[in-house]
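notes to self, project folder thing:

trying the whole complex as one job this time. last attempt i did each chain seperately and stitching them together was a nightmare. two parts in total, labels are on each line so i dont mix them up again. if this works i'll redo the older ones the same way
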Amino acid sequence: MRTLTTLCLLLMMTATACADPLPSWREGATKDAILDWVNSITDSENEDFIPVRDRVAVFDNDGTSWCERPGFASAEFQASLIGSLAAEGKIDGEAMPFKAWIADDRDALHEYGMGKSYVEMNAAFAGMPVFAYRDSARAWLERERHSRYGVRHTELYYLGMLELQALLAQHDFQVWIVTGAAQGFVRSYTEEVLGIPPGHVIGSWTQPVYHEVDGQGVLVRGDVQNYNGHENKPAAIQTRIGKQPVFAAGNSNNDQPMMRWAITGPYRSLGLWIHHDDEDREYAYDRGTNKIEDLVKENPAAFEVSIKDDWVRVFACDKP
Amino acid sequence: MRTLTTLCLLLMMTATACADPLPSWREGATKDAILDWVNSITDSENEDFIPVRDRVAVFDNDGTSWCERPGFASAEFQASLIGSLAAEGKIDGEAMPFKAWIADDRDALHEYGMGKSYVEMNAAFAGMPVFAYRDSARAWLERERHSRYGVRHTELYYLGMLELQALLAQHDFQVWIVTGAAQGFVRSYTEEVLGIPPGHVIGSWTQPVYHEVDGQGVLVRGDVQNYNGHENKPAAIQTRIGKQPVFAAGNSNNDQPMMRWAITGPYRSLGLWIHHDDEDREYAYDRGTNKIEDLVKENPAAFEVSIKDDWVRVFACDKP
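result (full assembly):
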């Protein structure tokens, strides 16, 4: 039995080994570093070998796995949901922070306090059945188009990162999304779009509340928002995954603690900082990146990924 | 390629299809119900077919998957850790609730308040590196023997439940442990003992705190305990798994909301209530089971598992 299984696996591996697993990555030092790391840690003869069960990879979402400009899709969706609740008379759309969310008035939100604005927005969804929230998110994603590219937000995952996630999954990695965005929004589409089940999405979350209604179990959203950013990312990784990752990708200081946690464990690890330096094909911005940039300079396990230089194509909608 | 894969899978399935997957279960209505459900929901031609990605099974731990008498192993471990901290002068072992934990004085703990006793015990572990806690748990499990059976606690998983977990895993289920016990304790051994990774263990938990020390990421235990029992179980299942389970096993009212949530979803589902009615081979007790018993009577998807009548063998250390 075991011989048959081994034979089958060998045949399948041989058939797929020749193709470039990262066709959207330009040949160069970064691509070499990724492939060298993957080959080393998955080779049981190599001193850097990592057993399958410890192959945990964490990807930030906004700005790391998909486009986060001009606005965060999760916040835009939730603002639209606030608009619906106001239209239905369930909340006062003239009161802050709802008024500013509906008008997409970022200055007013910053003045009111961004943290508080998110907390109060989420509290307004309390009592909503968790599946109704999920279905609203799906409907929004189906309906909305990105203001610059004219495609669905879910079509703006970076090809290079999709290829990397697929490569890691092929090598039996657990691939997790660890995001500061609303968990319920992100997990509404990841299984369809990325093949990542909702249980592998860690985001800012609200513990739902359980009721029994006519013999049926019902879960509705709770009113306490738990923010999953900065130091909370490695903390949530421990709570939810229970293993120190050996790979992390991020794009801002928000991801620096998670990346440091991933690349300072016992195994040979890899960190990737996605640098937004391509105004022509995507966006160029550097605000809030100094700490993750310093980590790349300081730790040889971390690399800068220049969107401009390292990616042949950014999005599927680009001309190849 | 696909044909080759299919051929290999068929050969492997044929070679394993003939053996009884539940040899520790006595032939009868309960075993028939389990096998009929598994066969129906995994048969793509059957109207009750459940796609692989929605095959989520949740098992309570204490009293459902392993023996919980005479005391909860997780609490006994944590009490021993409190004893160590007191011996090191880090906490006052004469103060409540520590004194009662160390003396295993359950009356004193009940008088002080069980919830409060657990919360204050967990707060005493704040600042301990998460891996040090895990290693203490592993050392305790290696060292301790069960007072009645004389074996390690991890040898007291019920054979019938191990076979059932294996059967579900063979059918591409995600198998999760959802327990009121300390998450860090249970996940310290599940990967070795059950093949269940730490990320598939949901228990009472404490969000750790992240620090950076000399360029390294460090996680230590936090001081807020989140209890994972009763209504919190289905809530945590949604937060952590993000899918309504189609299978749940439990043994007490603590598991009733989780089981109701699992068996009142859109798919044909199965709930098992493990009834402790076998004083000779295990323990007989019925306190705190009326609600889960009522659910079994009320909902045809739920079944009683009588340890006495349904299991040929209870533990691996039983004579066959």
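what i see at first glance: The radius of gyration of chain A is 21 Å.
need to look closer tmrw
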